[in-house]
């Protein structure tokens, strides 16, 4: 007896459920911004919006990176079918976090943007990470996967340095309480460590 869901169940039940769950944080943020639901945005609403999108970007990166180890753990390949959607959600949250900085924080002012990047190197790290994620989002389709063949897998390994840069970016900007940032770094270390361990065993 197999407990793995079939293709149709994944397509029509699991994927839509994951989609709704993944879009939920963004929906809740929109409701908060509009003052319809949830806590107020506090004394610094721009920072609240930016931090919220950044943390969800990081969470979705880590969730996407958990899919392969989860498939290894249950010895079933079906979770892999959720990876692309989760990866694209990660990219969406990261891009919105960047856009919030660009539009709300910097008001698209080029000189302010340049001086912020120079003054705060953690922003350079975030920018580098986002640049690494762009080719992954662009080539995430089945068409690109076919066209690139084995190179697709190599290209998508860019998610590892991107995730490291993101954790570093997070850790570097924390002023006082580093516990949360260190916890996210630890989760990433485990997810990367599991891959190294698996590689050595093969
Ligand atoms: C590539 C994906 C990125 C992710 C996942 C990410 C994630 C994060 C996280 C988790 C935080 C800390 C939130 C908190 O303190 O609760 C943060 C802060 C911040 N990020 Fe990013 N970041 C990314 C890229 C960028 C980029 C490209 C920029 C700008 C060019 C940027 C600008 C900032 C700024 C300004 C803050 C500090 C906001 C504040 O003052 O609290 N990030 N980011």
Overall pLDDT level = 95
**Biggest beta-sheet profile:** none
Based on CA atoms alone, the radius of gyration comes out at 18 Å
By DSSP (H or I, 4+ residues per run), the number of helices equals 9
> Per DSSP, what share of the residues sits in E-state strands of 2 or more residues?
under 5%
Q: SSE order, as H and E?
A: HHHHHHHHH
Helix amount, in percent?
Answer: over 70%
- Pick out the low-confidence regions: none
Ligand catalogue? protoporphyrin IX containing FE
Q: Structural class of the helices, strands and pairings?
A: mainly alpha
Domain count: 1
Distance between the termini: 28 Å
Number of strands: 0
Describe the structure.
- The protein is an all-alpha fold and 202 residues long.
- The chain has one domain.
- It is built from 9 helices and no strands.
- Helix 3 packs across helix 5 (121-138).
- The protein starts with 6 loop residues before the first helix and ends with a helix.
- The mean pLDDT is 95.
- The structure holds protoporphyrin IX containing FE.
- Protoporphyrin IX containing FE (HEM) is lined by residues 47, 50-51, 54-55, 57-58, 94, 97-98, 101, 123, 126-127, 129-130, 133, 166, 169-170, 173.
Compact summary:
This protein is mainly α and 202 residues long. The chain has helices spanning 7-33, 45-74, 83-105, 110-119, 121-138, 142-148, 150-156, 159-173, 179-201.
Annotate the secondary structure layout.
Blueprint: H1 7-33, H2 45-74, H3 83-105, H4 110-119, H5 121-138, H6 142-148, H7 150-156, H8 159-173, H9 179-201
Helix pairs in contact: 1-2, 1-3, 2-3, 2-9, 3-5, 4-5, 5-8, 6-7, 8-9
């Amino acid at each position: 007896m197999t407990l793995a869901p079939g293709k149709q169940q994944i397509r029509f039940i699991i994927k839509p459920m994951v989609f709704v769950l993944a879009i939920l944080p963004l929906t809740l943020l929109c409701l908060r911004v509009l003052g319809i639901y949830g806590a107020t945005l506090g004394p610094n609403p721009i920072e609240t919006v930016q931090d919220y999108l950044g943390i969800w970007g990081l969470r979705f990166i880590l969730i996407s990176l958990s899919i392969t180890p989860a498939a290894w753990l249950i010895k079933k390949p079906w979770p892999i079918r959720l990876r692309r959607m989760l990866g694209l959600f990660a990219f969406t949250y990261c891009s919105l976090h960047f856009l919030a900085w660009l539009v709300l924080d910097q008001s698209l002012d080029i000189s302010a943007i340049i001086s912020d990047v120079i003054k705060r190197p953690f922003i350079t790290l975030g920018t580098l990470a986002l640049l690494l994620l762009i080719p992954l989002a662009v080539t995430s389709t089945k068409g690109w996967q076919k066209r690139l063949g084995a190179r697709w897998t190599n290209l998508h390994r860019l998610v590892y340095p991107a995730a490291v840069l993101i954790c570093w970016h997070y850790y570097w900007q924390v002023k006082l309480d580093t516990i949360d940032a260190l916890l996210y770094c630890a989760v990433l270390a485990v997810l990367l460590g599991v891959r190294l361990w698996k590689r050595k065993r093969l």
